[in-house]
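ARCHIVE CARD
Drawer: 12
Card no.: 0347
Subject: one protein chain, sequence and derived structure
Cross-reference: see card 0346
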Amino acid sequence: MPWLEDSRNALAAMNDPNAFRTSPGYEFRKREGLQAVQGSAAANGSLYSGNTLKGINEFGDNLAADEYSNWWNRLASRAGIGQTTATQLGQIGGNKSQDVASLLRDVGSSRASGIRSLGSGAGALAGAFDNYFANRGGKINPRSLVDYSTMNGGGYYA
């Protein structure tokens, strides 16, 4: 995921003391700013004067302070995006696992209900047989259990 990778890169840059000095934004502003200060001094004929050196030094100090703050805030924002992404992915995973667990629980409840109904039906059938045989005095007559007259050819017991 590009967000997480970008976040890792931002955190690595924040921990690298040389990353700021070599960042493209700082390098560009430093180069252009020094050219402007030196160009202005050269146009006035004071390129190597004390005031020019003081101006270059002040420019460098101000640039470093301003650009470092901007650079740090950009990296912190990028790192936060990755952190937010990781948090949201974790929440999505947790929610989906709860959904799957609920689905499996419901499937299990449905199966248990079906098995319970089957057991109740088997118990009712056993009770019906018990009542049937109890009413016949406990005697079992296989011919009385099935109506063989409805079978083709009169059945086995003709």
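Annotation on reverse: The two ends are 81 Å apart (CA to CA). The chain has one domain: 2-138.
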